[in-house]
TrEMBL record:
InterPro entries: Kinase-like_dom_sf (IPR011009), Prot_kinase_dom (IPR000719), Protein_kinase_ATP_BS (IPR017441), Ser-Thr/Tyr_kinase_cat_dom (IPR001245), Ser/Thr_kinase_AS (IPR008271), Ser/Thr_Kinases-Pseudokinases (IPR051681)
Keywords: ATP-binding, Kinase, Nucleotide-binding, Serine/threonine-protein kinase, Transferase
Sequence segments annotated as region (Disordered): 1-31
A Pfam family annotated for this UniProt entry: Pkinase
Assigned protein family: Belongs to the protein kinase superfamily.
Name of the featured protein: Protein kinase domain-containing protein
Domain Protein kinase, residue spans: 62-320
Compositionally biased intervals (Low complexity): 7-18
């Protein structure tokens, strides 16, 4: 896909706004309870035999300071480990949570060597009979969805747009499709840090265009994966999909950066999926969106995945738009 050259300067809206307050971490807390049930056999295999380069840790090595967030798959805690402040994701006792833990450790183990500044870094992992925990670098700015609930700093749009595009380019170049790219899975750190996180649904890209998950040596076809509001139409419709589905999700993140609302906020998540997959609709961009940004988003959320630009091309074009508009 080709993009028109940006022409106008942006002086207001999400492209130039007031600073946002810093993220405040939680207070000291007791260590989380171990997940119920023996999760070791949920996915088969073991970390020790499949990922020899992952640093092993014991749960007792972590000093938990507070809960950062939680969901069906488990909870994430602010913790200290080996003298460093970290984020510790403790899996729940659900079988799918164990599978996601295996995938995240497996994917990040490969991506962390040499790593990329726009992809969260794996530091270690805990594998005990009742507990699975992944130890990640801590990002002090919280997630993007949290940040968009308040006023954002000047040029915040381009900070996030360029960071996510660069991280996605790295993932795709290394044969990894994220499959759940959305604002809660983009973390912020420091003045400029933007990192793609949560690789529990990630997959290696196959020559056929379909994807297969990595679960400690097993490959399992998954025709529909992700979160409805950010999900590409071909995934909603259970069709073959490729890395371009991540580019569609990226377009939805750009929409969030402009509007500070999730895609199709006026309807349920399931209705949003129907709108995307069956009705071929897209959320309406607000008046005043710069033409270059609007055309970029429209290219990225094109109905035909083959028409969407590659992540590397998107990253280059975002840089050009920023130079022209700021």
């Amino acid at each position: 896909a080709s993009f028109p050259a940006p022409t106008a300067k942006a002086t207001d809206g999400p492209f130039a706004a007031a600073p946002a307050p810093p993220f405040a971490p939680g207070q000291k807390a007791a260590a989380p309870e171990a997940a119920a049930g023996d999760a070791a056999g949920a996915c088969g295999g073991s970390l020790s035999s499949s990922e020899p380069h992952v640093t092993r840790a014991a749960l007792d090595d972590l000093v938990f300071r507070g809960r950062l967030g939680s969901g069906l798959g488990g909870s994430t805690y602010l913790a200290e480990w080996r003298g460093e402040v970290v984020a510790a994701k403790v899996a729940s006792g659900r079988e799918d949570a164990c599978a996601s833990w295996n995938v995240e450790v497996g994917m990040l183990a490969g991506l962390s060597q040499p790593g990329h500044p726009n992809v969260v870094r794996l530091l270690g992992a805990v594998e005990e009979r009742l507990t699975r925990c992944v130890i990640l670098e801590y990002c002090d700015g919280g997630d993007l969805q949290q940040a968009l609930q308040r006023r954002t700093p000047r040029r915040f749009f381009f900070r996030v747009a360029s960071g996510v595009a660069a991280g996605l380019t790295f993932l795709h170049a290394n044969g990894v499709m994220h499959r759940d790219l959305k604002s809660p899975n983009v973390l912020l750190h420091g003045e400029r840090g933007v990192k793609i996180a949560d690789f529990g649904l990630a997959a290696g890209v196959q020559p056929t265009g379909l994807t297969r998950t990595h679960c400690l040596g097993r490959e399992v076809l998954t025709p529909e994966t992700g979160t409805y509001r950010w999900m590409a139409p071909e995934i909603v419709m259970h069709e073959a999909y490729s890395k371009s589905a991540d580019v569609f999700s990226y377009a939805m993140i750009l929409f969030e950066l402009i509007t500070h609302t999730v895609p199709f906020s006026d309807r349920s998540a399931l209705q949003a999926a129907v709108s995307i997959g069956l009705q071929r609709l897209r959320p309406a961009m607000p008046d005043g969106t710069p033409d270059a940004v609007r055309l970029l988003i429209e290219a990225c959320w094109a109905d035909d995945g083959r028409a969407r630009p590659r992540a590397s091309h998107v990253a280059e074009h975002v840089g050009s738009i920023e130079l022209a508009l700021t």
